[in-house]
Design goal:
Largest sheet: 8 strands, parallel
CATH architecture of the largest domain: Alpha-Beta Barrel
Strand order of the largest sheet: 11-8-7-6-5-2-1-12
Number of strands: 22
Structural class: alpha/beta
Number of domains: 2
CATH superfamily of the largest domain: Aldolase class I
Distance between the termini: 68 Å
Strand content: 15-25%
Radius of gyration: 22 Å
Number of helices: 11
Shape: globular
CATH class of the largest domain: Alpha Beta
Length: 414
C-alpha cells in the first residue's frame, strides 16, 4: 500500500511525464478570486538575504501579529531564496533540514494558526538566483510538494533560465500549481524583461515590472550585467503600465524598503506612492525590531485603504500641473466617487504647494472617471495626520512639503 507521500509522488511523476489525466488534456488556468486587491505581506529577501531559518520566521510571524500588521491587512509571510535543501532520489525538493528542523509544513501550520499565510520562493531556471535547486524540469513535482506543505504564495524568479521562453515557462508553473489543487497565489518575478504585463494576466496574479529594488532614493546600483534600482527610478519606470493592472492581476514594482535605511520622508513617500500605484504592499524590513515610526508608516489605515480600494485602479500623474517642476501630483479614483491625491516633492528643498480645486480639471480618460472639481464637493482628509482639511469647493489647499516627502489626502465625495 502506498503512503500519502508516495501517492503524491506517483501523481507528480505522471504529470511530469505528460500523461493526460481524467480523460483529456490539461487545461491551463490560474486560481481565480485570489489577489482581488493588491497582496499585502512580508518577504525575507530585502533585509535577510540568505539568512533565513525557522526561528527567525516564527518570530516574524509573531511580530506580524503583535505589531498590528496582521490586523492592518498584511497576510502573507514569504520566505525568499535559500530555504532549499537537496532533491531526494525521486527528484522531490526538500527544505534545508538544519535551517528548518521542524519542516516547512510545520511552519505553514504555525502561520495558519496565527491567521496568516506562508509563501515560498523558486525559480524557472535550473538554479535559483542564490544557486539552490530551481524548478526547471520539476515544476509539477515542486507544485505538489508546496501544496502538501500548505503553501499559499509562490514567488517565481528568472535566474539561470537560458533557452527558456518566459511566457511558456510561467505557464508551465501556473498549470503545475493548478493541477496540485491548492489555491496558491502566483507571483511572476521575471523583472519585466519580456513585458509580462502584455501576457501574464491569465498566468499569474502579479508580475514584476522592473529589476530588483534597492534601499536608496534615486540611484542605480550597477552590476556587470544587471542593476538594482532606487525608489524614484522604479517609480519612473511605471509610466504607461496602469492600463494592465486590476483585481487579480497587478503590476509589481517590487517590495517595500520602508525601514531599511531611507530617510523618514523617503519612507513615507515610498509607502504612499506604492499605495497609489495599487502595488502589492510586501514589507521587506525586520519587523521584529522596527521603530514606532516605521510601524506607523506601514500600518497607516487610511493609506492602506487607498491601496486596497476594490476598484483596483492604478494612479495617474496629473501632467497639466506645472507650477513647480519638483512637485508631482498623482490621482487615484476610488469607490463611491472618492479620490486620492498624492503630491511628491522630488526636490532637495521644502516646497510650497498650492492647489485651487475649482480651477483644476482632473479626469481619468482611461477608466472614465471625472472628479469635476468645479461642480462636485469633496471633504479633504490628510492621510498622515487623519485630520480634515476642509472642502474642495470652499477653499484652496496650501501646504509645505519637505524634501522627498509626500502629501497625501483622501477626497470623500459629499
Amino acid at each position: 500500500m502506498f503512503s500519502y507521500k508516495q501517492a503524491i509522488k506517483q501523481l507528480s511523476l505522471l504529470l511530469c511525464s505528460g500523461l493526460l489525466l481524467f480523460g483529456g488534456p490539461l487545461q491551463a488556468e490560474k486560481f481565480d478570486n485570489l489577489a482581488m486587491t493588491p497582496p499585502m505581506g512580508w518577504n525575507s529577501w530585502n533585509d535577510f538575504r540568505c539568512e533565513v531559518d525557522e526561528k527567525m520566521l516564527r518570530e516574524t510571524i509573531d511580530a506580524m501579529v503583535s505589531s498590528g500588521m496582521r490586523d492592518a491587512g498584511y497576510e502573507y509571510v514569504n520566505i525568499d531564496d535559500c530555504w532549499h535543501g537537496e532533491r531526494d532520489a525521486q527528484g522531490f525538493i526538500q527544505e534545508n533540514k538544519q535551517r528548518f528542523p521542524s519542516g516547512m509544513k510545520a511552519l505553514a501550520d504555525y502561520a495558519h494558526s496565527k491567521g496568516l499565510k506562508l509563501g515560498i520562493y523558486s525559480d524557472a531556471g535550473w538554479q535559483t538566483c542564490a544557486r539552490f535547486p530551481g524548478s526547471r524540469g520539476h515544476e509539477f513535482q515542486d507544485a505538489q510538494v508546496y501544496a502538501s506543505w500548505g503553501i499559499d504564495y509562490l514567488k517565481y524568479d528568472w535566474c539561470y533560465s537560458e533557452g527558456l521562453n518566459a511566457e511558456g515557462a510561467y505557464q508551465t508553473m501556473r498549470e503545475a500549481l493548478h493541477q496540485a489543487g491548492r489555491p496558491i497565489l502566483f507571483s511572476i518575478c521575471e523583472w519585466g524583461e519580456s513585458k509580462p504585463w502584455e501576457w501574464a494576466k491569465d498566468v499569474g496574479h502579479l508580475w514584476r515590472t522592473t529589476g530588483d529594488i534597492y534601499a536608496c532614493w534615486d540611484c542605480e546600483n550597477k552590476f556587470p550585467t544587471w542593476s538594482t534600482w532606487g525608489v524614484l527610478k522604479i517609480l519612473d519606470m511605471q509610466e504607461g503600465l496602469r492600463k494592465y493592472a486590476g483585481p487579480g492581476h497587478w503590476n509589481d514594482p517590487d517590495m517595500l524598503e520602508v525601514g531599511n535605511g531611507l530617510s523618514y520622508e523617503q519612507d513615507r513617500s515610498h509607502f504612499a506612492l506604492w499605495a497609489m500605484l495599487a502595488a502589492p504592499l510586501i514589507a521587506g524590513n525586520d519587523i521584529r525590531h522596527m521603530s514606532e515610526q516605521t510601524k506607523a508608516i506601514l500600518t497607516n489605515k487610511g493609506i492602506i485603504a487607498v491601496n486596497q480600494d476594490a476598484m483596483g485602479i492604478q494612479a495617474f500623474r496629473l501632467k497639466s500641473y506645472s507650477d513647480n517642476d519638483n512637485l508631482q501630483i498623482w490621482f487615484k479614483p476610488l469607490e463611491n466617487g472618492d479620490w486620492a491625491m498624492a503630491v511628491l516633492n522630488r526636490g532637495e528643498d521644502t516646497e510650497n504647494f498650492r492647489f485651487d480645486w475649482r480651477q483644476q480639471q482632473v479626469k481619468d480618460d482611461l477608466f472614465q472617471h471625472d472628479a469635476a472639481f468645479d461642480k462636485a464637493n469633496y471633504r479633504i482628509t490628510d492621510l498622515w495626520t487623519n485630520k480634515e482639511l476642509g472642502q474642495t469647493l470652499q477653499q484652496t489647499t496650501e501646504v509645505q512639503i519637505k524634501s522627498h516627502d509626500t502629501f497625501i489626502v483622501r477626497l470623500a465625495k459629499i
